[in-house]
């Protein structure tokens, strides 16, 4: 009860100063712009902005940074939907259904759904954070190496849901991704692996160049191929906002995904990207129309978007209560708080409630601002797809180069991204899904390192994974998830085969006539 | 899009107008080998803030990350030696060659100055059965390999600092590497490891909140922010040369001498800037200044101290 009173008081503080709202607006808008450019992530946006917040009052500076965080995670979906190049890793699950939607001329609707889902998910995350932060933080601490390993295995079962037509090809792609993650300096043994003496490979194949290669460059190559041949999709600009009925039918998905996202985000080390994939897999598994997934299902956009924004609130929980960042962005926010003289951690809740509650309230306000800016901008963004493909493609190409370079200011990364792009292009030709590679890149190091760490802890006794309750539960869940997803997958194939046969029959019947 | 194009054009102009005259006539780049928002980056940005005031031009931080710092430091080493590229160098440089990660050592740089040193803390959870370092060491000696000791990464300063204690005192810990300070702290709080070796400033808040108990600091003197925490020697386990984490500034070899002198003086002024000093106090960072000669001497002794430790943990490649 007390927390609600404090929260209301904090809203009053923020509203009493018009500048605070202005900074949220600037933050969210800037975040969306940073987020939708491939290679510029919410993490970088926050890091670059911190020096400017030195001279601001701490609350306003933080509000702006949280705005960037919220806007950045959401903004990634826009480029994912429009040009099949996720602006941030967290949006990689959104494009699986978002891009087909925009190919059907429904870009506006897809962005609209993404915006509303982000708002719902973000608001759930922020509310959970505001009301339950200390309790959840204590629970998060119970995740040790075996639990993280089990969680990563659970996450990897999502491969079944994102594999598309062939499970075998999906698994091959995922294994390829897992192999790639073993490249580089191994922090556990202190030894370089598969680097062939190259200093550039010591850091491994980093995530952003891989992301840009798998989606951005590959898409550029595909665009070049069809440039003169295939007529371009025109976006139905008039129909921007999804109807109330559509939104209403998606609300259960959004609520569930938002809650899942917040919980995922609150575990230190898991971020919005994992949350998005888990929510996507779960939405597909429990959907009444799983056959639509991958071909433009609205649920397929709503679930990951709601989850990744829900994770923003979740990720703030361990950062504020324990001083342990939930993901990369909150690590930067932690630095910002420290610079302003507030050391996040248990003492923050005792000594600085005057800053804790405005942060909670600000996080909720960020979501509201996001809803308005996003819906207002959706019309504008949707028009982008009407740009001539001959103009758009070189621009995407340029953005991909700039994006892969800017992460580490390294031309090696540009070549790496381009090489991965060529590979991804041919994988696409051979009907290999690329999303499993991405999932493997996210979860592979987590699975490997924590498995080894667990075995070190138990002195090579594997029972450590089954005798600890949380770890055991996640491993059982992983098995259940795999079985049910596989059944659903089989059923889907059967339905599709049936449809294909029907078409073949009717067409052969027609030709006989 | 137009904006981006005009930006590119502006960047081209900036490059083409770089002719040599009075130094410095354009902005200076500070290459940071760790990612934006991390500890080293935050210090670099705070330091760079007063660049305009003391050098006359802006100092821009550029993060070149990867390979445990190798990529960024290598970039600083091979940067054009015109004085416009300054590199932040950190602890890893003391270990790369010894561990076989890279041939690079501090000898490949024109050193400018040392910025800070931090020392390792050994901490346990507040409800741990071990109340003093002595309790812990006795138990570890009687039960070899049972006590789990979390650290921030194999070959890192805190791993080696803890390992040197274990080696010299013949106590066998079960070392569990984590990926950085935050996960190590989490593991300690969650009871997944018994002891954690981290930088002492990294456990400042948790110790103030009474959630962890710092048993000892691996330094020759007590840390001013932790007056009650004994050094290893005071706790009864003397080490001659403690492994310290460090950060400093360096130039590529071959920068004209007058420019080196100018940068040396300029960065010293930035280092002494009250705002920077105030900032480092706030985050609990201990500033330690050494000029180029003193810095080199320190790095030389550091290498000597690291060799036996790396050897003992099986990471020495030389």
Q: Which helices and strands, and how do they pair?
A:
The complex is a heterodimer of chains A (513) and B (318).
Chain A: H1 2-15, H2 18-36, H3 42-53, H4 58-83, H5 95-103, H6 107-140, H7 145-156, H8 159-162, H9 167-180, E1 184-186, E2 191-193, H10 207-226, H11 244-266, H12 272-286, H13 298-322, H14 328-339, H15 346-351, H16 353-384, H17 389-406, H18 411-429, H19 435-457, H20 464-467, H21 469-512
Antiparallel strand pairs in A: 1-2
Chain B: H1 2-16, E1 28-32, H2 39-48, H3 51-55, E2 59-63, H4 70-77, E3 85-90, H5 96-99, E4 109-118, E5 120-125, H6 133-142, E6 148-151, H7 157-169, E7 174-177, H8 181-189, E8 195-199, H9 204-208, E9 212-218, E10 245-252, H10 257-272, H11 274-282, E11 287-291, H12 292-312
Parallel strand pairs in B: 1-2, 1-3, 6-7, 6-8
Antiparallel strand pairs in B: 3-10, 4-10, 4-11, 5-8, 5-9
User: Under CATH, the topology of the largest domain in chain B is which?
Assistant: D-Maltodextrin-Binding Protein, domain 2
Strand fraction of chain B: 15-25%
Overall number of domains of chain B: 2
- Amount of beta strand of chain A: under 5%
Uncertain segments of chain B: 12-20
The biggest beta sheet of chain B reads: 6 strands, mixed
Taking the alpha carbons of the first and last residues of chain A, their distance comes to: 76 Å
Count all strands of chain B and give the number: 11
Shape label of chain A: globular
Largest interface: A-B, 59 and 57 residues
- Secondary structure class of chain B reads alpha/beta
How many H/I helical runs of chain A? 21
Derived structural class of chain A: mainly alpha
Helix-strand pattern of chain A? HHHHHHHHHEEHHHHHHHHHHHH
Strand order of the largest sheet of chain B: 2-1-3-10-4-11
């Amino acid at each position: 009860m007390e927390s609600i009173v404090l929260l209301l008081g904090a809203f009053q503080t923020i509203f009493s100063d018009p500048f605070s709202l202005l900074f949220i607006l600037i933050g969210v808008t800037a975040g969306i712009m940073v987020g939708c450019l491939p290679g510029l992530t919410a993490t970088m946006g926050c890091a670059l902005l911190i020096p400017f917040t030195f001279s601001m009052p701490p609350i306003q500076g933080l509000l702006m940074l949280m705005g960037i965080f919220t806007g950045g995670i959401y903004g990634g979906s826009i480029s994912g939907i429009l040009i099949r190049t996720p602006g941030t890793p967290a949006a990689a699950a959104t494009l699986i259904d978002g891009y087909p939607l925009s190919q059907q001329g429904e870009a506006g609707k897809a962005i609209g759904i993404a915006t509303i889902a982000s708002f719902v998910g973000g608001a759930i995350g922020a509310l959970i954070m505001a009301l339950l932060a200390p309790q959840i933080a204590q629970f998060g601490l119970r995740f040790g190496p075996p639990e993280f390993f089990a969680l990563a295995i659970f996450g990897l079962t999502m491969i079944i849901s994102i594999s598309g037509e062939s499970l075998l090809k999906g698994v091959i792609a995922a294994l390829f991704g897992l192999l790639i993650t073993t490249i580089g300096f191994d922090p556990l043994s202190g030894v370089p692996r598969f680097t062939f003496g190259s200093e550039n490979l010591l850091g491994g194949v980093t995530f952003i160049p891989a992301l840009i290669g798998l989606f951005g460059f590959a898409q550029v190559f595909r665009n070049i191929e069809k440039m003169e041949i295939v007529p371009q999709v025109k976006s139905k600009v008039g129909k921007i906002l999804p109807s109330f009925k559509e939104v209403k039918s998606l609300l259960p998905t959004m609520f569930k995904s938002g809650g899942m996202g917040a919980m995922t985000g609150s575990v230190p080390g898991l971020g919005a990207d994992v949350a998005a994939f888990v929510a996507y897999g779960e939405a597909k598994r429990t959907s009444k129309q799983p056959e639509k997934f991958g071909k433009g299902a609205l649920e397929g956009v709503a679930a990951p978007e709601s989850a990744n924004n829900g994770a923003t609130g979740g990720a703030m929980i361990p950062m504020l209560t324990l001083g342990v960042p939930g993901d990369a962005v909150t690590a930067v926010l932690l630095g910002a708080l420290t610079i302003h003289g507030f050391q996040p951690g248990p003492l923050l809740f005792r000594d600085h409630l005057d800053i804790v509650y405005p942060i909670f309230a600000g996080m909720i306000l960020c979501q509201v601002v996001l809803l308005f800016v996003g819906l207002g901008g959706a019309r504008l963004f949707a028009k982008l797809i009407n740009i001539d493909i001959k103009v758009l493609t070189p621009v995407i190409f340029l953005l991909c180069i700039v994006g892969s370079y800017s992460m580490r200011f390294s031309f090696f990364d540009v070549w790496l991204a381009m090489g991965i792009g060529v590979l991804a292009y041919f994988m696409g030709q051979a009907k290999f899904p690329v999303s499993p590679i991405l999932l493997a890149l996210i979860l592979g190091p987590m699975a490997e390192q924590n498995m080894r760490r667990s075995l070190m802890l138990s002195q090579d006794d594997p029972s450590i994974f089954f005798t600890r309750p949380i770890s055991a539960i996640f491993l059982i869940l992983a098995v259940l998830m795999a079985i049910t997803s596989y059944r659903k997958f089989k059923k889907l194939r059967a339905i599709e085969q049936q449809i294909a046969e029907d078409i073949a029959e009717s067409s052969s019947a027609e030709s006989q006539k | 899009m137009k904006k981006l194009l005009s930006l590119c054009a502006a960047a081209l102009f900036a490059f083409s107008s770089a002719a040599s005259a009075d130094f410095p006539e354009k902005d200076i780049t500070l290459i940071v080998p760790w990612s934006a928002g991390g500890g080293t980056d935050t210090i670099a940005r705070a330091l760079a803030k007063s660049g305009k005031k003391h050098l006359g031009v802006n100092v821009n931080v550029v993060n070149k990350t990867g390979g445990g710092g190798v990529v960024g430091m290598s970039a600083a080493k091979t940067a054009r030696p015109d004085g416009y590229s300054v590199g932040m160098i950190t602890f890893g440089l003391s270990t790369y060659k010894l561990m076989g990660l890279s041939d690079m050592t501090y000898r490949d740089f024109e050193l400018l100055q040392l910025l800070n040193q931090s020392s390792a803390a050994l901490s346990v959870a507040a409800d741990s059965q071990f109340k003093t370092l002595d309790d812990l060491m006795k138990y570890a000696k009687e039960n070899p390999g049972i006590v789990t000791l979390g650290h921030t990464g194999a070959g890192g300063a805190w791993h080696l600092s803890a390992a040197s204690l274990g080696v010299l005192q013949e106590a066998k810990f079960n070392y569990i590497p984590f990926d950085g300070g935050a996960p190590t702290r989490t593991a300690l709080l969650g009871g997944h490891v018994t002891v954690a070796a981290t930088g002492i400033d990294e456990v400042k808040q948790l110790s103030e909140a009474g959630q962890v108990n710092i048993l000892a600091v691996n330094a020759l003197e007590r840390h001013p922010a932790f007056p009650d925490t004994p050094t290893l020697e005071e706790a009864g386990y003397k080490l001659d040369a403690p492994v310290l984490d460090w950060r400093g500034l360096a130039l590529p070899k071959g920068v004209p001498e007058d420019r080196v002198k100018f940068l040396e003086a300029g960065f010293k002024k930035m280092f002494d800037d009250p705002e920077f000093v105030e900032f480092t106090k706030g985050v609990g960072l201990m500033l330690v200044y050494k000029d180029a000669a003193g810095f080199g001497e320190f790095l030389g002794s550091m290498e000597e101290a690291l060799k036996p430790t790396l050897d003992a943990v099986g990471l020495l490649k030389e």
